[in-house]
Each structure stands twice: as structure tokens, then as C-alpha cells.
Amino acid sequence: MQLHLQDLLQEEAGLQSAPVRTRNGALNVLESWVTATEKPLSEMLPDMWELLSKLSEIEPDEKVSARMKKLLSGAVAFGQENTFVM
User: Fold this and answer.
1) Structural domain tally of the chain?
2) In terms of C-beta density within 10 A (0-12 exposed, 13-18 middle, 19 or more buried), how is residue 5 classed?
3) Could you tell me the pTM of the whole model?
4) Domain limits at 78?
């Protein structure tokens, strides 16, 4: 799986977006990348992990915060129960 700069910038912007739906969409993409590569986010995209770590501290939505924390914990598999359908 090849990640492109444009994709990374879109996900970064999505994570910082005001609408919860947009943040969930960005998390869907990050979870799918992590699952596909079977590498924790901290290994695959250390800068994105750092950003997510900061954002998780101020995330107001409990479900979004839980999803962020799971990515930060090093999980590499995500079930359908966590995926937000767009």
C-alpha cells in the first residue's frame, strides 16, 4: 500500500475538522490503512500519530475519542462496530 502526500494531508485536515462526520471519515481511512499494512499508526505514520495524540486530548465526542485512543494504542485490527458509515 502506497500512501501519497495528498492523502495524508486530507486525513490530517479531516481529523481537525469541526464536523464529527468528517473526523469519523478520517478515522475510517486511518483504520483501514493500519489494518491493510498490519502496522501500528506510530510505526506507519509517526507524525500522524503525534497529531492524533494531541487531538485526542481535546476531542469532545466520546466515541471519536475512543476510536482515536484505539489507534494510538497500537491496535492494527478494527471491527465493523467501530466504523462510522458515511
Assistant:
1) 1
2) exposed
3) 0.83
4) 5-82
- Note the pLDDT tens digit of each residue in 15-56: 998 999 999 999 999 999 999 999 999 999 999 999 999 999
Q: Residue 64: what residue type? A: V
Helices (H) and strands (E) in the chain, counts: 5, 0
